[in-house]
Protein: (2Fe-2S)-binding protein
Organism: Hyalangium rubrum
Amino acid sequence: MAFTLSVNGDNHLIDAEEDTPLLYVLRDELGLNGAKYGCGVGQCGTCTVLSNGAPLRSCIVPAASLVGQQLTTLEGLVRRPEGTLSRLQRAFLTEQAGQCAYCIPGMIMTAEALLREKATPSEAEVRTALDANLCRCGSHNRIVRAVMRAAAEKPE
Ligand code: FES
Ligand code: FES
């Protein structure tokens, strides 16, 4: 079936099966590889994107069900046309928050949703927000530090 998706501010005409998960459309049709495939069953959070500003596990939601939503991926946080990284992306690099970094896109997108809702969260709130995002490398403390660093910066 054909439908239109709004991703990172651009409209895209998609031709996909009714039940094709958003993650596959993003990666295979649109070439947006920020969101990663981890578990494929909504458990790890590495595929997280935003739908109208709320975190969404893109591996389990059919793309066709998201018509009319404003979708944002990791790539969409980069300011256009300058190519400037967002404060979260910069903070993750500064804190060297990733080890293998596979979980990092999902961490950043989940943190982005938190900071949009609450500009200056406490460390406990950051930990709670990221609790369901898995990091097999055990980088959680550095990840939390990165989010706190970003939150301390002026909102963009
Ligand atoms: S790949 Fe989507 S939650 Fe794990
Ligand atoms: S840094 Fe490797 S899974 Fe998180």
